[in-house]
Amino acid sequence: MKILVINGPNLNLLGMREPGIYGSETLESINAELGRLAVTLAVEVEFFQSNHEGAIVDAIHRAVGSCQGIIINPAAYTHTSVAIRDAIAAAGLPAVEVHLSNVYKREEFRHRSLTAPVVLGQIAGFGAAGYDLALRGLVRHLQQ
Ligand code: CA2
Asked: Contact at 8 Å (CB) between 56 and 74?
């Protein structure tokens, strides 16, 4: 079983700026931890980060046929991207949306997610642990 983990714009800056909101872990260390969890769950994970909407759409398309599920933090595109929402819906793969911060405690424009209606579930506010929770939930769902 293979899971594609997608991180959207600016998440490559994790650990370098705004640690008060997004924590002090880098994306590299979050991915390394998720990779270790994947080994214990006996699944494979593939990581992809991009600051570009179309590149994220392409990555979702590529997952079809090669991956069984998707974990995605679309970052700012969560609130704006019909293209990413449509790609997730078209892929037909179970997806989990992750947010490091509790978006519902923040500005109102972050309360609306265009992707939430097309994913299996959403995790927000647990920092880096959200990715681990997403992987556990997704694997359990796929093994049902
Ligand atoms: O809480 C999350 O994970 C978000 O998806 C993060 C996005 C934000 O636009 C969403 O509303 C919630 C922003 C990611 C920006 O990441 C940075 C990391 C370090 C320094 C600056 C930005």
From this structure: yes
Structure pTM?
0.98
Residue 18, pLDDT above cutoff 90:
no
Query: Among 18, 22, 84, 97, which is best to mutate for testing ligand 1, by the most ligand atoms less than 8 A from CB?
Result: 22
Question: What is the tally of structural domains in the chain?
Answer: 1
Range of the domain at 90: 2-143
Residue partners of 121: CB distance under 8 A and separation at least 6:
96, 97, 137
2-7 β-sheet, strand order: 44-49, 2-7, 69-73, 95-99, 121-124
Report pLDDT digits (tens) over 43-76: 999 999 999 999 999 999 999 999 999 999 999 9
Query: Which atom from ligand 1 is nearest to the alpha carbon of 17?
Result: 20
Tokens of 136: 């556990």
